[in-house]
Write a structure and sequence with these properties.
Blueprint lengths: L21 E6 L2 H4 L3 H11 L18 H8 L1 E8 L7 H16 L3 E6 L4 H6 L2 H11 L4 H15 L4 E2 L8 H19 L11 H8 L12 E6 L6 H12 L5 E5 L2 H4 L8 H17 L11 H6 L4 E5 L5 H7 L10 E6 L2 H6 L4 E4 L5 H13 L9 H10 L4 H11 L4 H14 L4 H12 L3 H14 L4 H8 L6 H10 L14 H14 L9 E2 L2 H8 L11 E5 L21 E5 L17 E4 L18 E3 L20 E3 L20 E3 L21 E3 L21 E3 L21 E3 L20 E3 L31 E3 L10 H4 L12 E3 L21 E3 L19 E3 L12
Helix pairs in contact: 2-8, 3-4, 4-7, 12-14, 16-18, 17-19, 21-23, 21-24
Amino acid sequence: MASSSSLTLLASPSSPPRNWIHHVFPSFHGPDVRKTILSHIVKEFKSKGIDIFIDNDIERSKSIGPELIEAIKGSRIAIVLFSKNYSSSTWCLNELVEIINCRKVLGQTVITLFYEADPTDIKKQTGDFGKVFEETCKGKTEEEIRRWKHALTEVAQIAGFHSSSTKWETEAEMIEAIVTDVSNKLNLSSPSSDFDGIVGMESQMTKMRRLLPLDSDESVRKIGILGQSGIGKTTLARYIFNQYSQDFQTSVFINNIRRNYDIPAYSDKHSVKLYLQEKLMSQVTDDKDIKVPHLGVIKDRLKDKKVLLVLDDVDQSVQVEAMANETCVGPGSLIIITTQDQRVLKASGIDHIHKVDLPSDDEALQIFCINAFCQNYPKDGFEELAWKVMDLVDYLPLGLEVMGSYFRGMSEQEWTEALPNLRAHLVRNGEIANILKFSYDALCDEDKRLFLHIACFFDGELVEMVESCLEESFLDVRQGLQVLSQKSLISTEHRTIKMPKLLIQLGREIVRQEYPSEPGKRQFLNDAKDIEAVLGDDNAGNSSVIGIYFDHNKKITSSTCERAFERFSNLQFLKIVGKGINPRSMNYMSGKFRVLKWSQFKMTCFSLSFNPEFLIELDMSYSGLTKLWKGNKPLNSLKRMNLSSSKRLKKLPDLSSAIDLYYLSVGYCESLVELPSSIGSAINLIFLDLSGCSSLVKLPSSIGNAINIQRLNLSYCSSLVDLPASMRNLGRLSELELEGCSKLEVNLANINLESLDNLNLTGCFLLKSYTESSTDIQEPDSWRGRISRLPRIVLRGMKKPVSLLPLVVGEHVSDSLLLRSYHESSTDIQELVDPWIGRISRLTFLNLSGMKKLVSLPQLSEIAMKIMELQTMRALFVSVM
């Protein structure tokens, strides 16, 4: 394969293509080559339709004129023909300086031909070439000489064609190789329509340019392009290849390695590398039958070449080791690897990684509309339908393109009729399924099982809950989740598992296909029709089913049979959203439940036979329960319980055994009168939500034993009258919400204020006033000044003046930030009398909205006030000095 020039990557590859005047500009010393090799090259160029600039009619002088400069700038490729007397011409040397400038600024491709001249002599200005150059430099300025030397040195380092090379048996062979190379480069640099209509490419390239070696660089750069299947990794890599390949001596794009290069079974690592290197060399040399006898062949062939290599869809690190070893290519080479497996990049030591994200709303709409309507926006009447389809495929570019093409030409009615079927069977589309399923097929059996569990049940769940629920069924759930995440099959941002919608459908379809006509034999049930069929069949045996997830607006028409859940003897995971299922009875339920989530559950109590021993999460929000069950049940495994908005719930179960419970929400359980004293046994409880429990009168003193509570929400507990003194034991309490506790006599001495980050007392009308002489507090100094960490106190809706002096004034008040916001909105207050308001130099926010009778403000001149809210102030006159 003929070698050619080297070129630094363009600084702005996305800029509009130049209007080139010529294909090729030759720089040469006429007396040496015009009538010999140059004439043959010109002839061959013309026969191939390549336009070469010839300066026959330009009058030569010591400096090159504007016409010649424009010719150089207007040529896609510059060929420098070095001959023994090239440096005798200041004209040639000045041309060379201009060519170097165009190479750097315009991205012009430079090809070198050493015709009876030694590249080393040119680079170092030595030998006969150096002697000629020395004569030319006589009488010239130092700046001219410096520019000439720099240009000669730089261009001489570009690997090129050598007339003395033994590679050529005849000069004609070399000329043919030159013409072929120039022709190939012109084809690559021609404006391409391959990427016309590709939406979002510029936003991706903006991020990619930060990783590309845009400046001349002697090192080899490896870049990973990471993302899920169908998101556009290959398209981005092809775009970069198309933009930059002409700037490298050798450019190779190896497509779809994961599918096209199956590694032979039972091969040792050495054999695998030889096999992969043969595949690489066959593309480099365009020789399908090439043999690679040892692992040094690639290095021998490419070590001195500047190479652009793209390895597309890599899934094993050995592929990178064999085909993308940086020691095997020359300085300035660029290796790009696309993969959906982050582990491959890490194992290969690739730190420069670009993660391809899903397109924005606007970009996704454009992608879909281009394929559906052949325009960038929806046709009239199709706007809402377009967004529904886009949401269906989760904005995945592959899905947007396939679905856009599918709906093209359909009427609005046809769209509407097609959507319901697509929701259920989208991944049965061959083009989408083939791409997505390949990722699933590459998983080991253990990870396949985990993938299906998430697709069928655990999407959207917390990572720690999934780990807990599946730890008995898998060898290492955490490791499995990491594998799926690194392979871009799930994400775990914010500690929540999220799987793309198309992959969810793929997983569910894989499970369905195991027993297409016998749903009771599957592990998971998700389809409403299948669930209805199984629950309504008294004779069906369903011991294979371990999970049911019903999340449909559709209501199951027939009631479940009397002993429906008894037949699910191995049921571990049940999630039902909505009123779609109406059980006749729950007398027979699996004793293996690990997750039970049933919103709007209509029954008032579980049966005596219900066994929650293995239950890890219980979510019965919006239920009709008045109590969970009769008597005490073992809750040793329970970690999360959500009974919120169960308005008839009067009693919580005994929590003595719930030592692992860390989340308890009974918000807006309006009939709940009390918490069980066993709440103190929940020593690992972190979050407790009692908001809106309007019948709750008091908290048990045992709550002080739940010492790990960090967030306690009592807002709008409108019947709550007191907080137990034991709450002082809650040393980790960081957030306390008491808003709307209108009957609560807030005794701040009963609260551990040292750990608080947020205290909301809005609407606590009975907040006591604490002063130095307060008779209600025996030891006021025991808590005064202990809230130096508290960044926020909210006091909206106070009907009487309240002094916070004991809270915020301490011996070192001037040195510490004690309070960042002071809210007063008592409608009857005429003045702020608290002496501390003028003594907190760091107060930054003051809200006095709603104080309609306020007529004066305290001295605020020394306060670093940033925001003051004075809405609905009717009596206050503010003078601005």
